[in-house]
Design brief:
The chain folds into three domains: 30-115; 119-413; 432-526, Immunoglobulin-like (Sandwich). It contains three helices and 37 strands. The chain has helices at residues 2-22, 142-145, 187-192, and strands at residues 30-31, 33-36, 59-60, 64-66, 80-85, 94-95, 101-103, 108-115, 128-131, 149-154, 159-163, 169-173, 179-184, 201-203, 206-210, 216-223, 229-238, 250-251, 257-260, 283-293, 300-311, 320-325, 329-334, 339-343, 351-356, 389-395, 400-405, 410-413, 432-437, 443-445, 450-456, 460-466, 469-470, 477-478, 486-492, 498-508, 519-526. Strands 30, 32, 33, 34, 36 and 37 form a six-stranded mixed beta sheet that branches. Strands 2-8-5-6 form a four-stranded mixed beta sheet, with no helix packed on it.
Length: 532
């Protein structure tokens, strides 16, 4: 029995082995996760950086997947990456970067979910409508309280506008709308420069206004120190705007001024995605910018750059009423309707980041209700608080937009939100790009004139020190030039031999920028090379 049993067991084992060989094994099912940059969410656009790498991107059915972090530094100008979503329009399930998890049961595409920062959609999102008052009984204050607003701008501390009934005057207000002074600028402002369509902007001690409403090379500086008005000439043409707002004029936090052209201008770069190029299938405008050199009535200008504004809408806006910028975003308002916001880029087309135009795409695609896009209902989106919101400016110190009411002495002031850095932003602090003796020298000559030169990122007053004390004649030296070549120079006659430490500090001319830290370097003072 034992022998038979053993033979039987062997036969069974062989049969089982043959069965295993002849029967196909069940294969495991694996799924993949693919990431998409989603550059066209909300509006057409572009991204920089890259989507996460997908090596080892195979998961067994019902496995738990942890989504990727932003390992490729994916970015989109003007937007915030707020996670990965299962739908390209952001309506699906959102997973947090790096920590979000899900159970995988099929191949998955995860789209970058882009959020519009609050600083790109300030109108209709809060703030207040201010009625202009003359509580301090300022002389001629009724000129400001009895008319309506023509042009509006700010120097960071005060607001300024032209009263409709006294166009030769400039009203100066607190940010709360209280009249501070009423200033007679003269007949040029009162009779030569029309009030309608003409924006005001502020830079370098001047309130600027265009010479005409059309294309021009003339702007006027109203010097806020003495209220004189002086015509100044631009090196190239300031282009006319669209519709009613042909005389738009804007100012950047970094001090540049400029204007936006009518849509569909001829672009020197043609079709493409580079500098001065309009993307294929888009409609473009030109934002032309100028550097402002000096301060007050003697300012001069140099060409800065042209920035291309791309738009999917042809000939928008039908009736432009104002343009303003915070250096990162550019706002353009349309008569009695809504507004659009572009995320600015240098040397490449700038795309719409927020479409708040109530007559077009204000709705689910923008994440707000249609009513909140109406510029005459700027606070809660339901109540009309202004009769005719016209003219827009930006206070670069507080991060607030201002809209003047064409028919009443009212100004809307938005919530205060400073934007992320952009091509027209102010630097946070003065920074020395380089400093040292002229011509790259490392040694100075005893009791002879030696040149010390610094290069900075912003216009400043620079003080040079030797042994911790200001060098005679080198205190608060004013810089010259424009970025990236802003320089200051000191002439120094060392009175001792040997190694010596020199140091430098800079106080920006714009008080919104922090002073520099101390730049310090060592040089060697040698003997004269010739006799006295």
């Amino acid at each position: 029995m034992q022998g038979v049993g053993l033979r039987g067991l062997i036969a069974c084992a062989l049969s089982f082995a043959l069965l295993l060989i002849s029967t196909p094994s069940a294969s495991a099912i694996n799924y993949t996760v693919t990431y998409d940059a989603n550059a066209s969410m909300f509006q057409a656009g572009v991204t920089s950086g890259s989507i996460p790498a997908v090596s080892g991107n195979s998961f067994a059915a019902n496995a738990t997947v942890t989504v990727a972090d932003n390992t490729g530094s994916l970015a989109r100008q003007g937007f915030t990456l707020s996670g990965w979503n299962t739908a390209s329009d952001g309506s699906g399930i959102t997973y947090a970067l790096k920590t979000g998890t899900f159970t995988i049961t099929t191949n998955v595409i995860l789209y970058a979910k882009w959020s519009i920062p609050a600083s790109a959609r300030l109108i209709g999102s809060g703030g207040s409508v201010i009625t202009i008052v003359n509580t301090n009984s300022v002389t001629n204050g009724t000129y400001c309280t009895g008319g309506s607003v023509r042009g509006v701008t700010s120097d960071g501390t005060y607001m300024y506008f032209r009263p409709s009934t006294y166009p030769a005057y400039i009203c100066k207000l607190t940010m709360g709308g209280v009249v501070v002074s009423v200033n007679n600028v003269g007949t040029v402002l009162g009779s030569t420069i029309p009030t309608d369509s003409m924006a005001l902007s502020y830079s370098s001690g001047c309130l600027f206004v265009r010479g005409t409403g059309g294309a021009t090379t003339t702007v006027y500086c109203i010097d806020v120190s003495d209220w004189t008005i002086t015509a100044r000439t631009l090196p190239t043409t300031l282009m006319a705007g669209q519709g009613w707002g042909t005389g738009n004029l804007i100012d950047f936090p970094d001090g540049r001024i400029g204007s936006v052209s009518q849509p569909n201008q001829t672009l020197s770069g043609g079709i493409g995605t580079g500098a001065n190029q309009c993307p294929s299938g888009m409609n473009c405008k030109i934002l032309r910018l100028f550097n402002v050199i000096g301060s007050g009535k003697t300012v001069t200008f140099t060409n800065s750059e042209d920035i291309i504004l791309a738009d999917s809408d042809n000939l928008w806006p039908g009736d432009e009423h104002g343009i303003a910028t915070d250096g990162t975003y550019l706002y353009e308002i349309q008569y009695n309707a809504g507004y659009k916001v572009w995320a600015l880029r240098s040397n490449a087309p700038s795309y719409v980041v927020f479409n708040g135009d109530a007559s077009a795409a204000c709705g689910a695609s923008t994440g707000v209700s249609p009513s909140s896009c109406l510029i005459n209902n700027p606070v809660d989106g339901t109540t009309s608080l202004m009769s005719n919101a016209t003219y827009i400016g930006h206070n670069h110190a507080t991060g607030t937009y201002m809209m003047g009411d064409y028919s009443n002495p009212k100004i809307y002031v938005s919530n205060s939100i400073l934007p992320p850095a952009g091509p027209g932003s102010l630097p946070a602090a003065a920074v020395f790009n380089s400093y040292g003796l002229g011509s790259g020298l490392t040694s100075a000559t005893y009791r002879a004139n030696n040149s010390i030169t610094v290069n900075l990122n912003t216009s400043s007053l620079v003080t040079f020190y030797s042994k911790g004390k200001p060098i005679i004649g080198c205190r608060n030296v004013s810089t010259s030039g424009v970025s990236p070549n802003i320089v200051a120079t000191c002439t120094w006659r060392p009175a001792a031999h040997g190694p010596m430490y020199l140091s430098i500090t800079a106080t920006p001319k714009n008080s919104q920028i922090a002073p520099s830290g101390t730049g310090q370097f060592q040089i060697f003072v040698g003997a004269r090379t010739s006799k006295r």
